[in-house]
Write a structure and sequence with these properties.
The protein is mainly α. Helices cover about 80% and strands about 0% of the residues. It has one domain (about 15-65). The chain has 3 helices and no strands. The chain is elongated and about 45 Å long.
Length: about 70
């Protein structure tokens, strides 16, 4: 468990190729966010969908930073 704690709470500077992966994930999420924004009515559910999409980007990028 201590190794996992160190992994989660240590800064991971980008390695070669990682910034491009982060950007691709953000661009795909941005496209989906625009779709959600245009198709879904203003609502709690829409807000939650946007929040979950934001979380998706964060966790996907964290997986690259932490595990590659």
């Amino acid at each position: 468990m201590l190794d996992e704690i160190d992994l989660r709470f240590t800064y991971h500077p980008p390695k070669d190729g990682q910034p491009a992966k982060y950007e691709e994930i953000r661009e795909e999420a941005k496209a989906l966010a625009r779709t959600i924004d245009s198709l879904c009515p203003e609502s709690r559910e829409k807000s939650l969908a946007m929040t979950k999409l934001d979380e998706f980007v964060m966790w996907a990028n964290a997986s690259i930073a932490r595990r590659e």
